[in-house]
Structures are given as C-alpha cells and as structure tokens.
Amino acid sequence: MVTHYSTNPHTIKAKIRDLGEAYSTMSMSKEQLTANGNPCIFYGELFTIYGCVVDEVKSRTHIEKGLSTLSRGRDLLFPASTTVDALSLIAPSALMEKDIILGGDMFAIKISQEYNPVYLSYYFNYIANKRLSKYAKGTTIIHLHYNEIANVVVELPSIEEQGKIVAAIQGYTTKLDIEEALLERILDLKQYLLRQMFI
C-alpha cells in the first residue's frame, strides 16, 4: 500500500476530523458482560477478540439499549487507554453494524460515505500506527484522546481504490483461513495415523 501511495497521483489529503463524526462511549465494566442479552463490545475486546474488522459481535450485556451508547454503523472503534504501549492504541476495529452497545474506555468515529471504514481500519493499523502513536500520552497508563489526533492529516487513495484494496485483502484473508483449516485437518489426520501405528 505504501508503494501505491507513492505512485498514485490521485490521493486525497484529509484531517482525521474530516473522516466522520467522532463520539464517546459510555462507561462499562467487565462485570456487566453476561451470557445473554443485548449485543455489545467492551473496549478491552478491541485488544483481545477483534482485529481490523468486527465480523461478529461476541459479547452480551443486560444493559438496556435506551440507556447506552449505540454504534451508528460504519464506525471505527479506537481503544483509548492501555498499560502496554502507545502503538497498541492505534489499532481501531471497523464495525459496520448499527445499534451495538459500546462501552468502556474507547472512542468511535462514524465514517462518512466518502471513505471506506474497513480500508481506514487497515490504514490506521498498518500504515499510520507509528506516526499516530506519538500522540498517546502517559507512562503507567497510556491514553489516546480523539482531540489529540483530530487535526492530523492522512493521505488516502480514492474511494474506488480503497474498495479495491479492501477486496484484495479480504480475498487473501479468506484464502488464508481456508488454508489454515486444511492444515489443521491434515495435522489431525497425521496424529490419528501415528496412533494407529502403535496400536
């Protein structure tokens, strides 16, 4: 993607604040996660469960939707604090689904139609992460505030190119998932055959 930027004359320069509307999420503790109830995303899960894209919401809570912060669709979810390092905060997850309860120490940006939220997630995770990590502050607990990065200028390809890049990445990801599943089955078969040899 970096090569693409250096050779494509049709790039877009925009401040992060121009990508969409930012909003804060409600406070939530891990103890409010339940086995059933309304679908939710707790900020700690951005580190442990979700990658660049939230394909399936895993957690539930009994918090009522009317009393909570709900995703707006086409959102980028950024963790806002960590005890690890500043780089781990520049790792947003794209959430395309509306009305998912969001809670904990994170902020979200509802991405406008001029940009692809999934592309932007990959962009922040793999291209802009080192540059943006310098805006995170703290020692024991490191914080990232939206206002600190809102005026940072990013350089992006056209919306059409963003879509093509996402399609290519998702194609490779699907192929990798298939190959990993096949490898797992082959290893299981190998273990079975080895056991049969010693019966």
Automatic annotation (TrEMBL):
Bilayer-crossing regions: none
Q: List keywords of the entry alphabetically.
A: DNA-binding, Restriction system
Is ATP-binding one of the keywords UniProt gives this record? Answer: no
Pfam families per UniProt: Methylase_S
**Would you indicate the residue range of the signal peptide?**
none
Q: Where is the Type I restriction modification DNA specificity domain positioned along the sequence? A: 88-186
Report the InterPro entries cross-referenced here: Restrct_endonuc_typeI_TRD (IPR000055), Restrct_endonuc_typeI_TRD_sf (IPR044946), Type-I_RS_S_subunit (IPR052021)
State the Gene Ontology terms under molecular function: DNA binding
Q: Its Gene Ontology biological processes?
A: DNA restriction-modification system
Q: Which family does it belong to?
A: Belongs to the type-I restriction system S methylase family.
Q: What name goes with this protein? A: Type I restriction modification DNA specificity domain-containing protein
Organism this protein belongs to: Phocaeicola sartorii
Organism classification: Bacteria, Pseudomonadati, Bacteroidota, Bacteroidia, Bacteroidales
